[in-house]
Amino acid sequence: LLTGLHQQVRRTIHRHGLLAEGSRVLVAVSGGSDSVALTRLLRDLAEHGSFTVVGLAHMNHGLRTTSDRDEAFCRDLARHLGLPIQVAQGRVLEYAAEHRLSTEEAARTIRYSFLEDRATAVGADRIAVGHTRDDQAETVLMKLVRGAGPVGLSGIYPRRGRVIRPLLEVSRSALRAWLERQGASWMEDETNEDISNPRNRLRLRVLPELAEVLGGDPRRAIAQVAALVREDSEWLESQVDTHVERLVRRGGAGIQADLAGVQALPTPLQRRLLRRALCELAGQAEVGFEHVEAVRALLRGKGGAVDVPGGRVELSAGMLVLIERKASSK
Amino acid sequence: LLTGLHQQVRRTIHRHGLLAEGSRVLVAVSGGSDSVALTRLLRDLAEHGSFTVVGLAHMNHGLRTTSDRDEAFCRDLARHLGLPIQVAQGRVLEYAAEHRLSTEEAARTIRYSFLEDRATAVGADRIAVGHTRDDQAETVLMKLVRGAGPVGLSGIYPRRGRVIRPLLEVSRSALRAWLERQGASWMEDETNEDISNPRNRLRLRVLPELAEVLGGDPRRAIAQVAALVREDSEWLESQVDTHVERLVRRGGAGIQADLAGVQALPTPLQRRLLRRALCELAGQAEVGFEHVEAVRALLRGKGGAVDVPGGRVELSAGMLVLIERKASSK
C-alpha cells in the first residue's frame, strides 16, 4: 500500500518528468536517512509503476571513521531488498591534491563520475540521488549570501542529464518520520554536527534562528522561491539560444561575437550570452559576476581589453573577440 | 570638495537614472543616520550638479517617546542647512484600526501619502528617501524566507514613480562613518534594538550569524543578487506587456483573457500575466502564489472555477473569465 509520502514523491516525479516509460534506475545510497528512504520509496513505487530499480551504488570515500560501517549497512540493505549493489573505494585526498580541489569538491566529482560509470555499466538511464528540500533551502541560502546571481538562486535541479532528485520537494524530517513508521533504520553521519563546516552552521544555527523570526520553517518558502527563479532562468536561457546561434562564431584562437548584436540585447540576455561565451573560454575555471561585468563595461566603450579566466576579451573590427590564453600574446 | 561617498552616491544616481536635468528634489528625513546623510549628501551634490534640493519633509508619527525630539532635530537640521522643512503629525493607530493594517503598514502608507502630497505642493518631481544596502539585504532575506517569488527577491527598487533611493548601494556603516568624519550628528532610534520585531531580529541575530558562517558581510552579495533578479524580472514584465495587450480584455463584470493564448505562454510569462490580472481584480487585497497556481491548474483543465481575492475565475467559451465579487452570484 502506498503512503502519503509515496504519493508526494510520485507527484515530484510526474511534475518534473523525472522518469520515462521503462526507465532503469540506479539509486545512489550513502546509508543516511535521505538515501535509505529514497531507495525504499523508489523500490515500492517501481512495483506500482513502469520503471525498474536496477540496483544500488555506494561510494566509500574512506574519509570518516564510520565509512566501513556505512558500507556494510548499505550492503545489508541491498541484500534485504534483493537488489544488486555496486561499491567503490574513493581516493579523495589524493584526487583533491592532484586537482587542487577542496575535499568536498573532490568527493563530489569522484562520486558522480563513479555513478555515471556504473549507470553505463548496468544500462541505467537514470541515477537517483537523495537531495531533499532541506538541501535545497541550504544551497539557495548559501548561494544568496555568497552572491551567486539568479543561476545560483535556482538551487539544485530536479534533473540534470541522467541524475534525478525525486526527494527534492520533501523535508528530511518527513523522510525520517516515515522511515521510523516503517521500522527501517539508517546510519547517522556525525560529521553533520560539525559547525566548523559552513553548511552545517547554516543548518544548525541560521535556519533555526530564521524559523524563530518567522514563527515557522523557512525551508518550504525558500525552496518554492528557488523553483520560481529556476523557471525564469530556464526560459531566459532558452531565449539566449537563438541569439547565440545568430551572433556567436567559434574559430581561430577563440570565440567571436557580433558587437552591435550583443550591444543591442536586453541586459538579462546579454549577461547570459556573455557568461556562456566566457565559460566556454574558461574551461574548468570559474567565471564570476565581475568578469561578465568587465566585458559589459568593454561593450559600453570603456577601455580596450580585459583579462578573463582562460584568456582575454577585446574589441576588433565590429566584433567582440575572446582569445584563448595560449594563443594570446600574454 | 566631494568625498568618495559623494562619488559613490553619484554613481548610483547615474546608473539608475534617478535624477533628470533640473530635477527638484524633496528629501524625506526622519532624523536617523540614513536620512541625515542623504540630506547632506544631496545638498552637496546639488551644488555640483544640475538639480535642486527644494526642501525637507518630516513625518512625526507620534509613536515613540522620542518623536518630538526627532522632529526638533529635523527642524534644526533644516535651519542649519538653510532649507525649508514641511512637518506633519500622523494618526497612525487610528488609520491602522480603520483600514485593518499593521502599525508598520499604516505608518508607511501615511508617510508616502504625505510625501507625495508635499512634493506636489512644492513642485518637486523627485522624493528622495534614505533606504540603504542594509535595508535592501534585510528586505530580500525576509522575502526569501517568506516565499515571495522573484518579485519579492527583487527587493527595494532604486526608483518607483517620483520616489528615488540614492543610498541603496551604500552600507549604513559607511554612512555613519562619513557623518562622524563630517562632525554631523543624528538621532538614534532605540526601537531598532527591539528584537521582538522580526526585521530587527534578522538584522541583530541572523545577519551577524551569516557573516560568521561566511567570514564576511553577506549584505553586499544579497543586494547584488537582488539587482540581478530585478533586471530579469523587469525584462520579463516588459515581455508580458505585449501579451496582455493581445490577450486580455476588460468589460462587463471583470476581465477576460483568451484561453488558448494564455495556455500557450511560457510558464514565466503565464504566471506574470495571471498575477497582473488577479491583482487588478483584487484591488487592495493581496494576491499570493497559491492564487496564481490555482488559476494555472484551471488552465490545465482541473475543475470548473476558483475563488480568488476580490472575485472568482472560471472558463467559459474559450475564455478565462475573472468575475468581480459584487457581480458574481456568490
Written description of the protein model:
Chain A is an alpha/beta fold and 330 residues long. Helix content of chain A is 54%, strand content 15%. Chain A is built from 13 helices and 11 strands. Chain A has helices spanning 4-15, 33-48, 67-81, 92-99, 103-122, 133-146, 149-153, 172-181, 198-214, 219-247, 259-263, 267-282, 289-299; strands spanning 24-28, 52-60, 85-89, 126-128, 159-160, 163-164, 248-251, 254-258, 305-308, 311-316, 319-324. In chain A, the strands form 2 sheets. The first copy, chain A, has a 6-stranded mixed sheet, with helices on both faces. A 5-stranded antiparallel sheet of chain A has the order 7-8-11-10-9. In chain A, helix 4 (92-99) crosses helix 5, helix 10 (219-247) crosses helix 12 and helix 12 (267-282) packs across helix 13. Chain A starts with a helix and ends in a 6-residue tail after the last strand.
Give the H and E element order of chain A. Answer: HEHEHEHHEHHEEHHHEEHHHEEE
Q: Give the radius of gyration of chain A.
A: 23 Å
How many helical stretches of chain A? 13
Structural class of chain A: alpha/beta
Q: What pair of chains forms the biggest interface?
A: A-B, 41 and 41 residues
Q: Low-confidence parts of chain A lasting 5 or more residues at pLDDT below 50?
A: none
Q: Name the helicity range of chain A.
A: 40-55%
N-to-C CA distance of chain A: 67 Å
Number of DSSP strands of chain A?
A: 11
Please outline the major beta sheet of chain A: 6 strands, mixed
- pLDDT averaged over residues of chain A: 91
Percent of residues of chain A in beta strands? 15-25%
Query: Shape of chain A from CA axes?
Result: elongated
| Oligomeric state, counting identical vs distinct chains | homodimer
